Structure formats: C-alpha cells, structure tokens
C-alpha cells in the first residue's frame, strides 16, 4: 500500500443487504469517488427469523470482499477500511464471519456498534453539508440509525433501532399494523433525537431512503437529477410517500434512477419514512449522498480540515485540477466583491465557488464551452450545496463564457433560481468575463485594475502596462457589466488619467 498522502483510499462497507467498495481519490475535505461498486448479497435477510447470517449469502459475500480488497490494492490505496454494520454485529455467527473475512482478505474488519454506526453516519452528513443542524436518519438493511447534528463530544450521538429495510419489507407484506406498532415503539424511546429534530432539518441517508429521493426526481421531473441536497418540505415528503404506496409493482418498475434491487423495499421504506416524519416534525427533509463511508474518512481529518466549507473545498480542488492559473479564483472573488455589497453569507459562498471554477472549462470547444461548463457544474459532485445553489454556480460560469440568456438548453435548470439569484448570476458572469479578458487570467494584472462603484456607475482603473485602455473588447465588456448591474455609466481610466 502507498504512503503517499495524495494516494487513493478505500472503504468497504459490509452491510446487511449490500456490500459496497468506494475508492476515494484521497483523504480530503471533499473527496471524489474514484471507483464505486456495489453487490447485493443479502447477508442479513434471515437475521430477524434465525438470528444468523443467510447461509447461501456467505460464500458470495466472501468472494465479493476478496475482489474488493484486491481491486483497492491494485489501485494503490493508502489504506483499506473494512467496516461491518448491523447484520454482522447482531448475528450469532457474526464473529465467525468477520474472522473468515479477515482470513480471506488479510484486512481487519471493524464491526461497528449501534451508537458508533449512528455517529459515523452523522459524521458523513457533516462531511456533505456546511454546518448541518438537526437529525440524521440512516436506513440500512437490518437497522435504522438516528443521530443528532452537529455531532459534539464523545458521548452518545443517537441510537440504532432494529427496523432495517429487510425486516420492514417482510413485515410490511404480512402485517402493516404490527410494523407501525414496532416503529412507534422504537421511536418513542428517542426523546433527545426528537427534540433535536423538531422544527429543524431531517437529513436522509441509506440506499432505500435515497431511493425515495430518486423516485421523487422521476415523478416530479425535477430539472436536476442529483439526489444530494434535494430538499423537500414535510408535506411534499408525505405526498411522495402516498404516491409510492399507491403504485403497483409495474408502476414502481418505471421509476427511472431507482435500482431494481431497491424496488421491493421501496413501499416499506416509504411506510417507515412517513412515520418518522410525522414523529420528528422537521421543517424540511434533505437527502444526503454522504453517509457512513464518507463519515469514516471525515473522522480521520484533523479539526482544521473538518472545519473547511465542503463546497469551497471541492471548488478549490476543481480549480487546482482544471484551472489554467493558480490563485485566479481567489483573485476573482476579491475583484468582484465591490459589486455585491450587502450579500448574505450564503450568497457570498456561492459567489466564491463560482469564481473558483470560472476558468475550468478552457479546454472545451469554443462553440460548446458555455453549455459544457453549465451542465458539468450543475451536475458536478459538489458537497454542501442545494439545487438552486448548483444552478447559480453553473449559470454564472455559463454567462462568463457568454452563453445566451434565452438558450433553451439551460432554461429548465434556470427555473430553480429566483429573480434575485438569477440577476446576481448574470452580473457575476459579466464581471468574470470582463476580468479574465482584461487580465488574461493573471491575478497580478487583475489586482492592478480594481473595479469601483461610483456615483451610480462603474469605474475601472486600468493601471497595468499589459492592459490597453483603448481596447474596445474591454470597454464593451465593462458596458455589458454596467447594464447587467443596472448602472447608468461605466468608465475605464488609465493610470495617467
């Protein structure tokens, strides 16, 4: 294995229903999944009835785990983290199976306790959002975990209930009344969790619950098909449940984006989801693509790295990888600031993210560059951003590349922006276009050409010898910026004026 801090790292998640390998590009605040493979083995499908792992699943599971560890080693991973959750934790033969995994792979298996699993999934949500607050719920195959957010101290963060998707699906088919009673009895014990979540955000984790988010995107034909950061009001979430429960098997099969192996569990997952929402009474429901696996990485970061904004960390990484000039994004953020006095904290971070990625599409063909940048950024695996935030970043860069406001290709996604956000993106895009044209993307040149708001207009001081004050391209872009900002005048002056 590699000792290089920039080497990839791997997490093997040994769950009750599926086993997943995720290889991340490196240990970082906003790591990118380099490779992601899942296999449904169903180790826990007989746990509720027999107390043991499904015998017919053990052989395939061991073969799968051997493959995953060999793949991770071949990819040069700095380390491989093999974690097991409820099925191995609760099964009578769980310790024997963990020993068999270690013998077959040469890797130690860490079996997480219920509270540790809840805490780790909550850390995964902390990895995926900027300062999340409320409650995390993670539906696995054999258990469901709840945890308060933020995760503070070393004490219990939440709890685990034996109400996983496999158990809930079997009971849902036989006796819904009993399932409802089991759910209500379990939730009734989680007083601190309920107090932390009422009127706040419920962060939804776990394959079967994420499948509900994917179903919503299909049923509602959302402009963006990105589950991370998808936010619903509680009534929207309950309406989704009603729709799912009304669908027959054929109707569920038409839900694009939902894995076929998730379809059987979807009604039971929706049934549990409804009762959790009614019990928790959250202000909103937000789906998270990050959970236990990302939590394992997040736990290894130092406090300073954890405290970084995940959106800005991801945008900075993208700039480092695809940008032309180091430091340009930060220079653009400083240069554009005078245009946005009075912006909120959230508006400022979205502007900074757009500045960081403003010059990352330079390799694309000029005829398609604006659209390519728009769709890449709208769907990029950013963390810490919702759908309107994605649309803002994408549209600002689209306009920086002189994409047309009336381009029908981007119209649906632009519908996510309110009037204020759309205008801000257009002003920022015009400013970025001007900044890069006058400076060639060189931070030192840009710093010598500050932009000021003065007497209802814009004043651009061209105080660098590489900039020609008579350049019509610069003057035209300055005027376009003034018009986008609703200002009457725009003046470019040289150092001698």
Q: What topology does this entry show?
A:
Elements (H helix, E strand, L loop, with lengths): L8 E6 L3 E7 L8 E8 L6 H4 L4 H20 L5 E5 L1 H5 L3 H12 L3 E3 L2 H15 L5 E6 L4 E6 L8 E4 L3 H10 L1 H12 L3 H7 L3 E5 L1 H13 L11 E2 L1 H13 L2 H5 L6 H4 L2 H15 L3 E4 L4 H7 L4 H4 L3 H13 L5 H9 L8 H12 L12 H11 L7 H14 L10 H4 L4 H21 L3 H5 L3 E4 L2 E6 L9 H13 L4 E6 L3
Parallel strand pairs: 1-4, 4-5, 6-9, 9-11, 13-14
Antiparallel strand pairs: 1-2, 2-3, 6-7, 7-8, 10-11, 12-13
Helix pairs in contact: 2-4, 5-14, 6-7, 6-13, 7-13, 9-13, 10-13, 16-18, 17-18, 18-20, 19-20, 20-22, 22-24
At the fourth CATH level, what is the homologous superfamily of the largest domain?
Exopolyphosphatase. Domain 2
The residue-averaged pLDDT reads 95
Over all CA atoms, what is the radius of gyration? Answer: 25 Å
Uncertain runs: none
Tally of contiguous helical segments: 24
Shape: elongated
Quick tags:
497 residues, alpha/beta, Nucleotidyltransferase, domain 5, Hypothetical protein af1432, five-stranded mixed sheet, 14 strands
């Amino acid at each position: 294995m590699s000792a290089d801090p920039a080497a990839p790292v791997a997490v093997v998640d040994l769950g009750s229903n599926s086993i997943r390998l995720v290889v991340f590009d490196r240990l970082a605040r906003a790591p990118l999944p380099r490779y992601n493979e899942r296999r449904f083995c169903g180790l826990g499908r007989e746990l509720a009835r027999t107390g043991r792992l499904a015998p017919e699943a053990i052989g395939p599971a061991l073969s799968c785990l051997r493959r995953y560890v060999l793949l991770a080693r071949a990819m040069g991973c700095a380390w491989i983290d093999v974690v097991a959750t409820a099925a191995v934790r609760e099964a009578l033969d769980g310790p024997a199976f963990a020993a068999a995994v270690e013998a077959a792979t040469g890797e130690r298996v860490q079996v997480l306790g219920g509270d540790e699993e809840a805490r780790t999934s909550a850390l995964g949500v902390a990895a995926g959002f900027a300062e999340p607050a409320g409650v995390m719920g993670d539906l696995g195959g054999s258990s469901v975990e709840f945890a308060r957010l933020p995760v503070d101290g070393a004490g219990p963060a939440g709890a685990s209930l034996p109400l996983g998707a496999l158990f809930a699906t079997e009971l849902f088919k036989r006796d819904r009344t009993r399932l409802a009673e089991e759910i209500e009895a379990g939730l009734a014990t989680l007083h601190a969790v309920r107090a932390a979540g009422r009127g706040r955000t419920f962060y939804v984790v776990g394959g079967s619950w994420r499948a509900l988010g994917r179903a919503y995107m299909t049923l509602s034909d959302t402009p963006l098909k990105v589950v991370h950061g998808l936010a619903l009001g509680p009534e929207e979430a309950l309406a989704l449940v009603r729709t799912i429960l009304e669908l027959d098997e054929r109707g569920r099969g038409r839900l694009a984006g939902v894995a076929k192996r998730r379809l059987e569990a979807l009604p039971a997952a929706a049934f549990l989801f409804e009762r959790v929402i009614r019990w928790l009474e959250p202000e909103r429901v937000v789906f998270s693509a990050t959970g236990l696996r990302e939590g394992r990485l997040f736990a290894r970061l130092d406090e300073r790295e954890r405290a970084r904004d995940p959106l800005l960390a991801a945008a900075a990484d993208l700039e480092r990888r695809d940008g032309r000039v180091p430091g340009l994004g930060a220079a653009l953020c400083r240069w554009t600031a005078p245009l946005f006095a009075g912006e909120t904290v959230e508006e400022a971070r979205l502007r900074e993210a757009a500045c960081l990625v403003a010059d990352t599409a330079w390799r694309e063909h000029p005829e398609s560059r604006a659209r390519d940048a728009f769709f890449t950024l709208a769907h990029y695996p950013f963390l810490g951003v919702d759908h309107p935030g994605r649309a803002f970043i994408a549209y600002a860069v689209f306009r920086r590349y002189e994409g047309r406001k009336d381009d029908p290709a981007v119209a649906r996604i632009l519908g996510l922006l309110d009037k204020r956000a759309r205008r801000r993106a257009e002003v920022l895009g015009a400013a970025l276009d001007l900044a890069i044209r006058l400076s060639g993307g060189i931070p030192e040149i840009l710093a010598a050409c500050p932009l000021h708001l003065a007497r209802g207009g814009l004043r651009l001081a061209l105080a660098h010898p590489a900039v020609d004050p008579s350049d019509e391209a610069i003057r035209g872009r300055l005027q376009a910026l003034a018009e986008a900002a609703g200002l009457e005048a725009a003046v470019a002056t040289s150092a001698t004026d």
